[in-house]
Write a structure and sequence with these properties.
alpha/beta, Spore Coat Polysaccharide Biosynthesis Protein SpsA, Chain A, 2 domains, 9-stranded mixed β-sheet, two-stranded parallel ribbon, 39% helix, Glycosyltransferase family 2 protein, Nucleotide-diphossugar_trans
């Protein structure tokens, strides 16, 4: 079973992710980093620290590298072909991570494939931010590490799912909500079928999720494709590990997220990249916790200013608040 890691211009998080893999994970065959444009000087340090990994780059990687190095606005197109091709050429089941995810407890993938095949399991979530809307409490144990669950979704039809939860008709959601057809919780439960990463996928399931051509992240497309898949293969199942074995970070984002005005998260990435490259930002001191920029406050201010640093802290707070509002517990 291979480990695929989607990565873009956050080598400090990738370092933490890879370190955690070698610390806690076993029974995998290979690690492949799917890079979408991280500048070469950062990749060189990653290759030196982790010489056994493979790095495959997207078609736009060189263009994005130059844009980052020239401090230009970066192309926002997602590398869907890179992800699909890597999955299509991977093992029948593979572990998919993003660079800002890391293991926090030991896990062996030695017999995972056999257990998943024997039980027709297409996806196993490795974390869910302690939010049981994203999984369910009603599970069936497969072994000491793995359990399956029945998704609690209200509409199985891709057409009606799209109509109810993604219609552009004004006030339709409010109207449907009066009759209990629509609610934010009902919509969120469809993520019981899907994870953008942080899961074990069967090759056929993941490729089917991304069969829709798109240049930006639009997760409703993956959920629609998931519904189509389970209609075609009704005996297929989804599952999760008995406890969460991954955590994810909230210090930066690979995508531009404007949680506060006049703050450039791309610049924040540049600052952390350089401090990490210079050896001034230790990312491996606490494997179980997210990165802490307060410990390098002076270094950040030296490269920016006090206002930038304080806005960054506010940005992180607002980023976390989005997940807290969804019912996630990101502190456990």
């Amino acid at each position: 079973m291979e480990i695929l890691i989607k990565s873009f211009n956050r080598p400090y998080y990738l370092d933490k992710c890879l370190h955690s893999v070698y610390t806690y994970a076993s029974g995998f065959s290979k690690i492949i980093v799917l890079d979408d444009g991280t500048p070469e000087k950062y990749l060189a340090k990653i290759r030196t620290k982790y010489p056994k990994i493979d790095i495959i780059q997207s078609e736009l990687a060189l263009k994005k590298q130059k844009q980052i190095e020239n401090q230009e606005k970066c192309d926002s197109a997602i590398p869907i072909d890179l992800w699909k091709n890597a999955a299509a050429n991977s093992t029948d089941y593979f572990i998919l991570l993003e660079d800002d995810m890391w293991f926090v407890q030991p896990i062996s993938f030695q017999n995972f494939s056999n257990d998943l095949k024997a039980n027709a399991i297409e996806m196993v979530k490795l974390f869910w931010l302690n939010n049981h809307i994203l999984v369910t409490k009603k599970t069936i144990s497969i072994n000491e590490n793995l359990e399956v669950y029945q998704p609690e979704i209200s509409i199985q039809s891709p057409f009606w799912y799209s109509f109810v939860f993604h219609s552009k008709i004004p006030k339709l959601k409010g109207f449907l909500g009066l009759f209990g057809v629509f609610s934010k919780e009902k919509e969120m439960k469809y993520y019981q079928l899907y994870n953008v990463a942080g899961a074990v996928f069967s090759k056929r399931y993941y490729v089917s999720l991304w069969q829709t051509n798109q240049t930006v992240v639009a997760e409703k497309n993956q959920i629609i494709n998931a519904l189509k898949f389970f209609a075609k293969y009704p005996k297929s199942k989804v599952g999760k590990t008995k406890s969460e074995v991954l955590k994810t970070g909230f210090v930066t984002s690979a995508l531009r997220k404007d949680f506060i005005s006049d703050f450039n998260i791309e610049k924040a990435n540049v600052v952390l990249n350089e401090l990490w490259l210079e050896g001034k930002f230790e990312v491996l001191s606490d494997v179980n916790s997210d990165l802490d920029i307060t410990v390098i406050k002076n270094e950040i201010i030296a490269k920016t200013d006090v206002n930038f640093y304080e806005n960054w802290l506010l940005w992180i707070h607002n980023f976390k608040q989005v997940y807290l509002n969804f019912g996630c517990n990101i502190n456990e």
